[in-house]
Design a protein that fits this description.
single chain, about 200 residues, alpha/beta, 7 helices, 8 strands
Length: about 200
């Protein structure tokens, strides 16, 4: 795998509010935070661009709402902000795609000549997947670091339920099989970024 010198890491919604298990329910992939931290460290040490995305929920009871402690980044993300050798962007959004945030992610990527992005963060099948799908539609080469994401059990129509692992697998199949992104492991990305 070839990682461009200006490939951007997009870290989606790694916020404290996702620790509120009573709100979200059971999650998968307990190694996700370690893998996200590893990607941030690799990108910052190589001088590549990093985008930190924060979800500002409009739902009054959401742990991610503005003014609630859960809106803030998890400590391991917050302490890494501003410490890289490359360009950095902080954006906020209130919808699923980071491409509909403020400031404009697409404009920032175009200004830096970025054509390749890596997506990591929370939730696998929600904002991370939506950002990756949109990036693929916009013509970016997208790597989706599946093991650097996690999600929660979900309930759909007609009482259908899927566990978090099932939802993550569905995301991987949809993104990879649909040509939106190449689904990879974080260790592969870290090794490629070090070359």
């Amino acid at each position: 795998m070839d990682i461009a010198e200006n490939a951007a890491l997009v870290v989606v919604d790694v916020q404290q509010g996702f620790e509120e298990e009573e709100y979200w329910g059971p999650r998968n992939n307990p190694s996700a935070d370690r893998n996200i931290a590893g990607l941030i460290a690799a990108w910052q040490s190589s001088g590549r661009p990093v985008v930190f995305v924060r979800h500002d929920s409009r739902a009054p009871d959401s742990p991610l709402r503005v003014g609630h402690p859960g809106n803030g980044f998890k400590p391991y993300v917050e302490e890494r902000r501003g410490r890289g050798g490359g360009p950095e962007l902080f954006l906020t959004k209130s919808v699923n795609s980071a491409f509909y945030g403020t400031p404009d992610l697409g404009a920032w990527l175009r200004a830096g000549g970025v054509r390749q992005i890596v997506v990591a963060g929370i939730q696998t099948n929600m904002c991370a997947e939506t950002t990756a799908r949109m990036a693929g539609n916009l013509g970016y080469e997208v790597f989706f670091a599946l093991d650097a994401t996690y999600t929660f059990d979900g309930v759909g129509p007609w009482g259908w339920t899927l566990g978090a692992d099932e939802l993550a697998r569905a995301t991987a199949v949809s993104l990879h099989g649909g040509g939106f992104a190449e689904v990879v492991r974080s260790a592969e990305l870290i090794a490629a970024a070090a070359q």
